[in-house]
Amino acid sequence: MQRISITIDDHLKADLDNIAAKGERAAFISQAIQKAVDEWHKQQALDKILNFKPYKINQDSVEVLREVREGRIQQVIAASRE
Amino acid sequence: MQSYVIDSSVFNKLYLDEVDRDKAQQLFVKAAAGEVMLFAPDLLYLEVVNTAQRCDVSIDSVVELLEAQRYLLQMRAVSDGERKKALQIIAYGHDKSGYPSIYDALFHAMALCNSAVLVTADKRHYAKTQALGSICLLSNLSF
User: Fold this and answer.
1) Handedness of CA B96, B102, B108, B109 (dihedral sign)
2) pTM for the complete prediction?
3) d(CA B109, CA B5)
4) Residues contacting residue B89 through CB under 8 Å, at least 6 positions apart
5) Bridge partners, B36 (sequence order)
6) A61 has which bridge partners?
7) Which residues in B have their CB inside 8 Å of a CB on A?
8) Residues 6+ apart with CB under 8 A from A6
9) What are the chain A neighbours of B89 within 8 Å (beta carbons)?
10) CA–CA distances in Å: residue A80 to residues A13, A71, A74, B47, B105
11) Pairwise CA distance, residues B100 & B104, whole Å
């Protein structure tokens, strides 16, 4: 566990005092920070998808995947016969 | 909250300029908003890299994209129950139309075992196994 010091607005402090009792405040804030960090990571992941410049290919990727799967099955069959 | 299992065929759309890329992105927009949960067998990681390699796409950029998604897409090992369900699924087919591969089936089993819906871009797998339920074609997905 790490101890950090942060500054918050007066009205937020008042809200916090109403919501969480003194003994529960650290856990409440820790959960809120964890949630915010998780949301930040989710948004970063989504930005990666939405900003990705897609590649143009000459094949249908569904067909390519099917070949990948079929190829692996054939490899397993061949290996079992060796 | 609705949960979706993402097939590798759907993730591949995220880095390729292909039809239904916007629908694949929409799934992740919903996940970021906390409206849906996304998960997949960790096999997805290898299949996506393998597909990118075969398509002559930069592996580094695809790996970076995959790594960043751990906050939106939970990738995990398949459980014993899910593996058993996948073995049942591969027997579900027809001599003429063919049987589902074990790799397709693992994704579908994960959905069936977790009250989730498998989202796939593979029309053939969908046609073979739609009667089992818990499966949706990416092109039919609407929010």
Assistant:
1) positive
2) 0.88
3) 10
4) B100, B104, B105, B108, B109, B112, B129, B132
5) B2
6) none
7) 8-9, 12-18, 21, 25, 28-29, 31-32, 47, 50-51, 54-58, 61, 64-65, 68-72, 101-104, 121-124
8) none
9) none
10) 68, 14, 10, 22, 21
11) 6
Q: Cα(A57)–Cα(B43) distance, rounded to whole angstroms?
A: 23
Token duo for residue B91: 């027997």
**CB neighbour list of residue B93: distance below 8 Å, 6 or more residues apart:** B99, B100, B128, B129
Substitution target from B23, B54, B90 for chain A, most A beta carbons within 10 A? B54
Q: How far apart are CA B72 and CA A68, in angstroms?
A: 25
State pLDDT tens for residues B67-100: 999 999 999 999 999 999 999 998 887 777 678 8
The pair of structure tokens assigned to B9 is 């065929």
The answer to whether B141 touches B23, Cβ cutoff 8 Å, is: yes
CA distance A52 to B8: 17
Q: Does residue B118 contact residue B103 with C-beta atoms inside 8 Å?
A: no
| Cα B14 from Cα B23, distance rounded (Å) | 9
Q: Coil, strand or helix: which one is B140?
A: helix
For residue range B33-48, list pLDDT tens digits in order.
Answer: 999 999 999 999 999 9
The residues pairing with B137 across neighbouring beta strands, listed in sequence order, are B120
**Amino acid (1-letter code) at residue B25:** Q
For tokens 């818990």, name the residue: B134
Q: Is the ipTM of this complex over 0.95?
A: no
Q: Check: CB of residue B109 under 8 Å from CB of residue B89.
A: yes
